[in-house]
User: Fold this.
Amino acid sequence: MIEIKNVSYKYSTPAGSVHALKSITASIPSGAVTAIIGHTGSGKSTLMELLAGLIKPDCGAITADGKEMSPKTAGLVFQYPEYQLFAETVYDDIAFGPLNSGSSKAEADERVKYAATKMRIDSDMMKYSPFTLSGGQKRLAAIAGILAMKRDILLLDEPAAGLDPSGRQLVFSVISELIEENKNMTVVFVTHSMEDAAEFADNILVLDSGELIMQGAPDEVFSNKEQLISCGLDIPEMMKLSIALCERGIDIGTPLSVSDAYRNIMRLLK
Ligand SMILES: Nc1ncnc2c1ncn2[C@@H]1O[C@H](COP(=O)(O)OP(=O)(O)O)[C@@H](O)[C@H]1O
Ligand SMILES: [Mg+2]
Assistant:
């Protein structure tokens, strides 16, 4: 369990200070997936860097099982994969994390293969320079680099941005596999997609101008339609469909995903 207590963070710029996060208090459960949503500039990436232990709060504290966050316990996939990829080949890039944290060459090789297989990176691609990859391939390589570190806390800042539908499906199925395989795993992802938050998260944190305005299960969070719209967000399309049908006297419940809606509609038709 990650505990965020009263956390604030300011950036100093030549034009003055930017109050990116204001007294955030939240809990992020282990063995579950948490999504962070909020409009651009609401503080999502700043919160991810704090969770990764890459920056320290100005006040307040973030702990995982009582210990301060550290890059040794959490792995962050940055919003822009270019920030992360730097080695000469994709192989070296994925191997960097394990080698840098003390793995032997053989162990690092095993972890590279594990992470590359998960992210569908084939042996040809391993020899390429990461800079020759497409945007989507860079994203998958950046995720593989963090998976190879085998941290119990996995943080992904907009992991599906720039991916095609199969890439997006791959990212979220890998996330659910990791949680299945390791019950101590904590996954946090940032997204602009209400659908992805509704379908793939167990728990959602909503940021608005540096403040945490809601936290809870997807059905609870998305029941506050007006408040979400007022901070530049929305509810998932399937919930809009259910509201439109309900106004015409057809009750399909409150589906969060297409498969939920399908199941509820089929039940109604029987
Ligand atoms: N390195 C930085 N220097 C100064 N201001 C920053 C920096 N990074 C982010 N900010 C500011 O902090 C606020 C939150 O940014 P960020 O955490 O990137 O939001 P989000 O990821 O939700 O778009 C924004 O006002 C942004 O302009
Ligand atoms: Mg961001």
Observations:
- The mean pLDDT is 95.
- The two ends are 42 Å apart (CA to CA).
- The CA atoms of residues 122 and 256 lie 34 Å apart.
- The beta strands are 2-13, 16-28, 32-37, 59-64, 67-68, 74-77, 153-157, 186-190, 203-208, 211-216.
